[in-house]
Fold:
Amino acid sequence: MSRWVWIILLAGLLLRLAYAAAQPTYTRHDLARGGDAGWYLTNGYGFFSGKAHGWVQRTPFYIERLPTPPLYIIFAGLVQQFADIQTSVVLMRLLQCLASIATVYLAARICLLITGDQRAVLAVAILAAFHPSLVIEPANIATETVYICFLALGFWLYMEYVTQAGFKPAAARIGPKAAISLTGMALALAALTRAVAVLFPFALVIHLLLLGRWRRLDNWRSLSLLLIVFYAAVVSTWTIYNVALWDRIVIVSDQLLPALWRGAETDDGSPAENDALLNPEALPNASDDCHPDCRYQHPAELYIERIRALAGADLAGFFARRSHELAASLIQPHGTTAFGQVSIRDAAGDMLRQGITAEGALEILKIEGFALKLAAWLFHLAAIGFGLHGMWLSRRRIELAGPLIAFALYTLAAHLFLLALPRYLFPLEFIWLIFAGISLVALFDRLSPGKAGLASDIPAQT
Structure:
């Protein structure tokens, strides 16, 4: 890796630390009530309290019925065992800044595997290190940074020590069997952070099968078995924990049906509004000693009935709504509300409907955080646009690029049915950026006299 990559990584880390240091910490858990930060902090503390249910500074936790995967809750709880709430938030942000810059390194390394071109590696490092959304995300007490880091780690292990080892066996520092086992564990930790990734390892099994048919791997069967065994061993720990302690069967998360219902429902909103939509007659009276998750446990049959009614009444309309929500969430960059609550997109839409005027354009320029929001939009749209082009160029190295492309398609396909928000599609950003770096260098070579172009420098392996 070029020395410039390390300089870029250091600059990106300092930028993340500076932004995180400028953010306020929480003095009470309930200051963030209604948002994810307070929920994770409260349940993290409660997870290690030894109680099934309790309160932290007027905010309740209910460990017996945790609806989400546990890893980030455990992370938040472990840090709070050694420090007060303010210090815990600072420590979590510090660790997330390190995880974020590790993701930048892994993205650059993956690009090097695909192309072997240092210029593309530098392009990816610059894009990922200074992407506004990736810079601010580590300061959020939320799952995205940790989830993306585990994904990047799993992809790097798989591509460098399993797939690439099929081309250059002598270059591998660890064997394919050890690497595939670590890959399974990394992807399991990702699934225990965000449940949407739970089925993706089976796509890697298909990829291993194809590598075997292309005669790139002779032992693809044993590698597939190791991948699934180690993945299942780590993922099943959460199931075993729930069965042993709470007599509850849950695989990663119990929010699949609620997410499907919210994807089908057009009027969903806050938890209380969703409960009223689902079954208003069954809502019990509020109780001071019970968490809302304790009071409102809707049966699976109710979700299935409502999903069937919503989708069955107008199937074409259902897919039209889902496609529209997915497209809108894909185009909208994540995290722009951190720079101000007023939406540039909404303001620009209003101006276009009412007529373009100098006064209207000036009002848009006055929006709080306009420059930073514009930068986030430019980075995000460029990542998707150039990323799609880079994916097309990388078809000649599908053995290496295939898993990344497959994960992007897998995530988009999942959120065609599940609730789609910009935050839920944000983990794809590092994949777009890897291929965007490939695209930018290829376009530069194409426009430069005497250059053959990066696309012709990527040797075909199939």
